[in-house]
Amino acid sequence: MSMRKLLEIELFKISKRPRTYISFAAISAIVLIFQFAFKADGENYMNLMLQGINDSFQLDKQHAMNGYFMCYIILNTLLVQVPILVALVAGDAISGEANMGTLRLILSKPISRTEILMAKFLASIMYTIILLIWMAFFSLILSLWIFGSGDMLVFRVAGEVSQIMQIAQDDIVWRYLAAFGYAAVALTVIVSLAIFFSLFAENSIGPIITTICIVLVFTIVSNMNIPVIDKNVKPFLFTSYLVGWKGFFYIATTEDGIPIKGSMENIQSIQSSLMILFAHIGALLLTSMYIFKRKDILS
Amino acid sequence: MNNVKIPTLLAISALFVLHASAQDVNSLIKKVKNKLDNIKKYEATGTMKTSIAYLKIPIAKVKIQYKKPNELAIKSNNGVTFLPKSVDAISLQKIFSNDFTAIDGGTEKVKQKILRVVRLLPTSQQSNIVLSTLYINEADLVVEKSSTTTKDEGTYEMDLQYGKYIQFGLPDRVTFTFNAKDYKIPKGLTLDFDNVYPKNQKIDKTMLNKGKAEIVFQQYAIN
């Protein structure tokens, strides 16, 4: 059986599970709630972000609260939750089969275990990508339709410094494409992790909960501002790199503080974050293959 | 008798000199004001570069509209533009619109030119301006530099450069320095995890509370 056929079967299985659609429904609901809230009372949020600046500067806040800005706010909030939604499907990949007793049946076919695992892995990635496209449609396209377009403001806190960056309208779309691409890689780490835990369980709750717990605990540690943790722990947590997509929106500036179109402040940081994420994917996938190949299938 | 006469004469002479100097300054201010008063309205296009440590914003294209006696509006074509609130102070007509007492501050060498320093003290208690110091080019009857202290918006300074519109008293370039509040937002609002400011970025901490707007006028349509 070809890899393509295997992948089609896995995608068919994913499409038949009701839990697959929970993620799409959750994303749609969250984005729509955000959009409604900002349409109704977004000025208050803008005032909160601009506290201190309002006394010194005038700004057309309605114009600033455009679709590009909305998408950034939504992604900033949502991309922390999406790993949970991805784990719902990927955590079920092997353990779901074990639970239903179909794993032994599949493995009795003339297909290698590596191919089966790869098919499940690729199907979960495809599901993640479709989820991201869905998210892009709701958070970017729909927001642009509701709030209009314009230059985008990015609010940032780095160390002790708070700053506002303005990105020209014609310099934004490629950043979103890159950010969604980065998010796909980051979420593939979650897929790999969930599939890895899925190998050890005979029902899907265990791997899903374990993956979610790891993501939550690591995210909390990544958020801590303790120098010892910053130096010795954070670099080793994949969650520290999940928010790296924001780097595409940290525009480089001239010495006078004028943003340079098409630039990024720290491209090396994005590159190294991507390398670390790919290393996690590779390590988890290879370990999963190694374990799966040697695993006694008893269910 | 002679002992009394000499100080009295000196005092009278000093008063005379001061009065003459005040008259000079008043007449100078009147000439500068009259030059500006010839303009009923103008519309200018230009660019505005706003610099303050926490803002990383592009140079904005702006339209400046003025209407007598002292209505000045600065609008941006970009949509999202940070306009310093006190930027309308670039209109010198605003300073001259108040009743004031002019005090001669002598001359000072600024930008390789000898300029007359005139301090304007508003006579009204209600005026937002506390003190304005103008550096006037007596030959061209234009203000080349000014410093204004206000009750509400702190002190702002202006540096004006003139070119082809000097006969109207309108500058080609204005550099406006103003006070601003520092900007701090909690990390929880931005969900940023970076704990250090990127090493390749320099931050001028002296510019956290001081902003600068540089307006370059490209074309005026006068009256």
Topology of chain B as a string of helices (H) and strands (E): HEEEEEHEEEEEEHE
Compute the gyration radius of chain B: what is it? 22 Å
Widest beta sheet: strand line-up of chain B: 4-3-1-12-11-10-9-8-7-6
What is the N-to-C order of secondary-structure elements of chain A (H for helix, E for strand)?
HHEHHHHHEEHHHHH
**Number of β-strand runs of chain A:** 3
Largest interface: A-B, 50 and 43 residues
The overall number of domains of chain B is 1
Q: Which runs of chain A of at least 5 residues are low in confidence (pLDDT < 50)? A: none
Main sheet characteristics of chain A: 2 strands, antiparallel
Taking strands numbered 1, 2, ... along the chain, how are they ordered across the largest sheet of chain A? 2-3
Question: Helix amount of chain B, in percent?
Answer: 10-25%
According to DSSP, the number of beta strands of chain B is 12
By secondary-structure content and strand pairing, the structural class of chain A works out as: mainly alpha
Taking pLDDT < 50 over at least 5 consecutive residues as the criterion, the unreliable ranges of chain B are none
